[in-house]
Amino acid sequence: MGDEPDHKGHRARLRARLLDSGGDALADYELVEYLLALAIPRRDTKPLAKALLREFGSLAKLIGAEPEALRRIDGLGDGAIAALKIVQAANLRMLKGEIAGRSLLSSWDALLDYLRADMGALDIERVRVLYLNSRNMLLRDEIASEGSVDQSAIYAREVIKRALELGAAAIILVHNHPSGIPEPSRQDIAITREIAAAAAKLGIQLHDHIIVGDGDYRSMRGMGLI
Q1: DSSP assignment of 149-187, as one string?
Q2: Tens digit of pLDDT for each residue in 127-161?
Q3: Where are the domains positioned within the chain?
Q4: Closest C-alpha among 109, 159, 104, 114 to residue 136
Q5: From CA 166, how far away is CA 75, in angstroms rounded?
Q6: 90 burial class (0-12, 13-18, 19+ CB within 10 angstroms)?
Q7: Among 34, 29, 36, 35, which residue's Cα sits nearest to residue 55?
Q8: How many CB atoms lie within 10 A of CB 161?
């Protein structure tokens, strides 16, 4: 109990720096420390914050970590995990709001920001399909599959069937590479071309296949692969 006033004083100083100078005034561990303090008010959260950043490697990977992975950390209860995940949820909600009701082709940077934030830190491979209307506005953003640490699967027939159900005029494929390296594999290129050909026969355009890595991405159309 004798340490509590020191904790309160330290947190008050962090709060003052945040409010006076903005988030850039705080180091990554201080942002995490203050966030955890809201969920664990009677504990010095600096050591836990530093341990979490060491374990996950970056602030983005920590915030993007799955709850199951976070639960493996000693001293991190559901309240603190929820505090971390609400930051991710709020961030994704704001980023997704930047593309809502707009042509994705004219909001490309905003789309990439959203996809990197949502998928860049995943430790399993996830495939999603963005179904667009004739004005290239988002009809539906759906997860097509999730796989093992480094492999997932997507089937052309299922993608095209869903596009027809939704009345989509175009699609964008997206998946992540848990390795952090977004270079397309031969399998990535083959399935992309298969889906593009099947879609074209039905008047549906495949705009792109985006591969997300750790803070980076590759556009297969931009690379001339489709």
Answers
A1: SS-----HHHHHHHHHHHT-SEEEEEEE-TTS--PPPHH
A2: 999 999 999 999 999 998 887 555 567 888 999 99
A3: 4-93, 103-219
A4: 104
A5: 45
A6: exposed
A7: 29
A8: 11
Residue type, 99: I
Measured from the Cβ of residue 103, the count of other Cβ atoms closer than 10 Å reads 14
| Contact of 136 with 206, CB cutoff 8 Å | no
> pLDDT of 161-203, one tens digit each?
999 999 999 999 999 998 888 999 998 999 999 999 999 999 9
H or E element that contains 129: strand 126-132
pTM here? 0.79
Q: How far is CA 184 from the centre of its chain?
A: 19
Residue type at 71 in one-letter notation: R
The CATH-assigned architecture of domain 103-219 is 3-Layer(aba) Sandwich (3.40)
